[in-house]
Amino acid sequence: MVVALLLIAEIYPLVWMFLTSLKSNSDYLNNSTWSLPTHWEWGNYSEAWTTGHIGLYIQNSLLAVLPALALMLLLGTAAGFALQIMVWKGRSLTLLIFLAGMMVPAQMILLPLFTIYFRTGLSGTLWPLILTYTGTGLPLTVFMMATYYKTVPQELFEAATIDGAGILRAFWTISIPMVRNAILTVGLVQFFFIWNDLLIALTFTNSQDLRTIQVGLLNFTGDFGATQYGPLFAAICLNVFGTLLIYLFLNQKVMKGLTSGAVKG
Questions:
Q1: N or C: more exposed end of the chain, with fewer CB within 10 A?
Q2: Comparing 138 with 258, which gets the higher pLDDT?
Q3: Three-state DSSP state, 27
């Protein structure tokens, strides 16, 4: 019974959103919220794609999120390896500095960053989003990767060093395969954080051509400035079900990575 209620609570909003995406504007405004569409307006999806520029917004999101994610995972994994596997003076203090970075609210750094991007000529491009996403996501990535590296036996790297492997070879050929599930898990967590961001994207996108999907949905209007609810919910469906499919496709890998960290940590 409890499981059935949880399934209803999880699935019904998605079903309602999908059905609403197929309603006309008058159907949405004049009929009951719970009613089925009078006419199934499949054209709402094509209107969201063309008039609502959802394709451009998704493209901008991908261009901002994927490079930031790649940089974040590369730097975070290397830093986690250096902090947990390598022995050097000051690594505990460095890890504490990264942990302190997790405590800084994003709202505090937006104004200084905006000034820096404006003076360096980066405003009007997607680089402010890429750099800000990388910087704000790096502390959590470093912390999680350092935690995962605790589960990797140190003897493997000691044996590799005795066999003549350098630090770069130990990192790429030994450590990366052993923590790839962790990288995938952290990558997916950070992907959803960045993809759903509104505050940073709203601050640094100063034209329609640079809007990400979340900013585009916030400013979604029809030809005459009035909100068209059918195409709006169609655009939301494209966003929600797209990310849901990515999660379901990689769900097994995520669960495996989380379980690995929980058991061994």
A1: N
A2: 138
A3: helix
